[in-house]
């Protein structure tokens, strides 16, 4: 192929050319077939140029320096800079200060509008309610408030019964 | 490059090969790649989902990955859409088998590179494939031939809702479905269409289209080099952003843009027929001659030839009955499929010989071209 462009990553002749406009800035990346494959450009299931730009630091914009860390899974900000992915769902809370300014550039908005997993959320709220009632029941027994305890016990029984009927 | 074909693999059950073969033979009945008319080869929707209790697949330890795999497989295999399915653990598949699935868009390259604890469940008709422990715990796709974005989204949405009954998804009311990579956050939705746009390529309009599409927040990709005729004039167009808009809005916008591109391609074809019919028919006729007579064809050339034959079908140069043969060959002329057809290991140059053999055999009795507006200019 007559092509004088070189791969941005390794300098071999480039055969894959990507152009994307992010925030009115034109980003062009030229890659050879090997690098394109290695970076997942040929992967139909989910490649984004933004992703590649972050990973290969072709992005002219600086990323925020800092030492955030997720207490839940131990993932660090350094690791995020390396792989462009998070460690666990709780990372989103832990890395919020770093993430917040990125989201506006990455997406149409920074708040979710769309599908909500109704059943899963309902299940979660039942679980949370049960946990709370059980704690209160324990406390009522310890402090010898037996009438309250009986009420909590009935309520717990009722919730469990409802959940059992549904499933 | 050779694709190793080993039967001596840990974790490989004796009937793995039989299951792969059954899947490949499923072609005749319900392969999603079988064409349905011009321009849009297939429509695809994928969702990224994760379980709330575990680390994301790339960060999870091996024991956790196995637990995620077990939990997801159980839920997925219970889906009514998966009543008949094939499940493959990645470690039981050879390189060749993985590559075959990649070429069929049933798994991603990323999944094929993962180690222990990942797998895929594929529905019998291959329209639904759910990968476990790729980048996210679940990467689910519905894929169908032709342009049917809304229908494909509805099918995907139904599956997702059913899975939610038994799986606790990682979800935040503010950020939506939480994904390993923040670029998929929110809806976790990527909708795309594989489009065959030869007239826009021939008339040099592709670069303009790509620019316009990018400005609308959509991405054009593929191995096809913008504005060139390097490999089959096939482009994949999809949404880029996933947060801040509802699924319906994303689908609607993509639908609108795709419809416009289809219109542009149709116009470009009309124009070519009006002003450059001889040049166009020359290309199609040469492609016909080559598939019947060539002895060495690499995969890029095969794609280009098939692309021109498909254009011929769309223009009525070849009868409609030939379409499924041409479309099937888009997949079967790819490296792993050619190697699979030869039942042994072979390198790229041997594959070029085999690919030409396959094309000659497939097109030996293909109807001769009939040019509707012969000699217009």
Explained architecture:
The complex is a heterodimer of chains A (167) and B (377). Chain A is mainly α and 167 residues long. Chain A contains 7 helices and 2 strands, in the order ββααααααα. Chain A has helices at residues 33-38, 49-56, 77-83, 91-94, 96-106, 118-142, 146-166; strands spanning 16-22, 25-31. In chain A, strands 1-2 form a two-stranded antiparallel ribbon. In chain A, α6 runs antiparallel to α7 (146-166). Chain A is elongated and about 85 Å long. Chain B is α+β, with helices and mostly antiparallel strands and 377 residues long. Helix content of chain B is 45%, strand content 15%. Chain B is built from 14 helices and 10 strands. Chain B has helices at 16-25, 27-30, 62-77, 95-103, 109-112, 149-164, 198-202, 206-215, 247-275, 277-293, 299-314, 323-332, 335-342, 348-363; strands at 40-49, 85-89, 119-123, 128-132, 138-145, 171-172, 176-177, 189-196, 218-221, 234-239. In chain B, the strands form 2 sheets. An 8-stranded antiparallel β-sheet of chain B has the order 2-3-4-5-1-8-10-9, with helices on both faces. In chain B, strands 6-7 form a two-stranded antiparallel ribbon. Residues 224-229 of chain B have low confidence and may be disordered. At the A-B interface, β1, α1, α2, α5 and α6 of A face β1, α6, β6, β7 and β8 of B.
Summarize the structure.
The complex is a heterodimer of chains A (about 170) and B (about 375). Chain A has helices spanning about 35-40, 50-55, 75-85, 90-95, 95-105, 120-140, 145-165; strands spanning about 15-20, 25-30. By secondary structure, chain A is mostly helical.
Radius of gyration over C-alpha positions of chain A, nearest whole angstrom: 26 Å
- The ordered H/E elements of chain A are EEHHHHHHH
Determine the N-to-C terminus distance of chain B. Answer: 46 Å
Stretches with pLDDT under 50, minimum 5 residues of chain B: 224-229
| Terminal Cα span of chain A | 61 Å
Largest interface: A-B, 54 and 70 residues
Q: Biggest β-sheet of chain A: count, sense, barrel?
A: 2 strands, antiparallel
Described by strand count, sense and barrel closure, the largest sheet of chain B is: 8 strands, antiparallel
The counted number of beta strands of chain B is 10
Could you list the spans of chain A in which at least 5 consecutive residues all have pLDDT below 50? 55-64
Count, helices of chain A: 7
Give the overall average pLDDT of chain A. 77
Shape, per Cα inertia axes of chain B:
globular
**Share in β-strands of chain A:** 5-15%
In helices, the fraction of residues of chain A equals 40-55%
């Amino acid at each position: 192929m007559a092509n004088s462009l070189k791969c941005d990553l390794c300098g071999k002749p480039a055969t894959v050319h990507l152009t994307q406009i992010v925030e009115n800035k034109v980003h062009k990346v030229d890659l050879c077939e090997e690098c394109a494959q290695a970076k997942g450009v040929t992967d139909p299931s989910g490649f984004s140029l933004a992703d590649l730009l972050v990973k290969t630091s072709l992005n002219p914009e600086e990323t925020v320096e800092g030492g955030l860390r997720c207490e839940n899974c131990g993932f660090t900000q350094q690791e995020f800079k390396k792989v462009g992915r998070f460690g666990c769902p709780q990372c989103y809370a832990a890395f919020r200060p770093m993430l917040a300014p990125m989201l506006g550039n990455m997406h149409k908005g920074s708040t979710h509008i769309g599908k909500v997993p109704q059943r899963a959320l309902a299940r979660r709220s039942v679980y949370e309610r049960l946990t709370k009632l059980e704690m209160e029941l324990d406390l009522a027994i310890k402090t010898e408030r037996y009438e309250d305890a009986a009420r909590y016990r009935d309520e717990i029984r009722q919730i469990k019964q409802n959940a059992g009927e549904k499933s | 490059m050779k694709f190793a074909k080993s039967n001596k693999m840990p974790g490989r059950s004796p009937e793995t090969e039989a299951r792969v073969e059954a899947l490949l033979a499923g072609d005749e009945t319900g392969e999603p790649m079988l064409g349905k008319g011009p321009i849009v080869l297939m429509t695809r929707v994928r969702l990224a989902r994760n379980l709330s209790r575990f680390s994301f697949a790339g960060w999870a330890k091996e024991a956790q990955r196995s637990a995620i795999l077990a939990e997801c497989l159980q839920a997925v295999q219970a889906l009514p859409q998966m009543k008949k399915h094939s499940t493959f653990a990645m470690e039981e598949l050879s390189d060749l088998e993985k590559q075959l699935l990649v070429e069929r868009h049933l798994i991603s390259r990323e999944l094929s590179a993962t180690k222990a604890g990942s797998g895929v469940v594929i529905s019998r008709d291959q329209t639904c494939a759910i990968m476990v422990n790729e980048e996210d715990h679940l990467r689910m796709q519905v894929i169908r031939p032709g342009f049917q974005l809304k229908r494909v989204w509805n099918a995907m949405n139904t599956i997702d809702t059913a899975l939610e009954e038994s799986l606790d998804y990682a979800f935040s009311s503010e950020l939506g479905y939480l994904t390993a990579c923040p670029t998929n956050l929110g809806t976790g939705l990527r909708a795309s269409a594989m489009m065959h746009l030869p007239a826009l390529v021939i008339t040099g309009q592709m670069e303009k289209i790509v620019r316009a599409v990018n400005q609308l927040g959509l991405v054009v990709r593929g191995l096809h080099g913008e504005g060139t005729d390097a490999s089959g004039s096939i482009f994949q167009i999809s949404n880029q952003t996933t947060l801040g808009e509802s699924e319906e809005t994303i689908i609607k916008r993509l639908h609108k843009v795709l419809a416009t591109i289809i219109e542009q391609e149709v116009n470009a074809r009309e124009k070519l027929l009006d002003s450059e019919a001889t040049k166009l028919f020359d290309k199609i006729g040469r492609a016909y001659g080559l598939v019947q007579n060539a002895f060495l064809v690499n995969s890029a050339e095969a794609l280009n030839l098939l692309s021109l034959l498909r254009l011929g079908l769309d223009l009525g140069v070849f009868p409609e009955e030939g379409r499924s043969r041409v479309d099937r060959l888009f997949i079967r002329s790819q490296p792993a499929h050619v190697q699979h057809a030869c039942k042994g290991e072979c390198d790229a140059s041997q594959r070029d010989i085999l690919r030409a053999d396959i094309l000659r055999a497939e097109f030996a009795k293909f109807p001769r071209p009939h040019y509707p507006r012969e000699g217009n200019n």
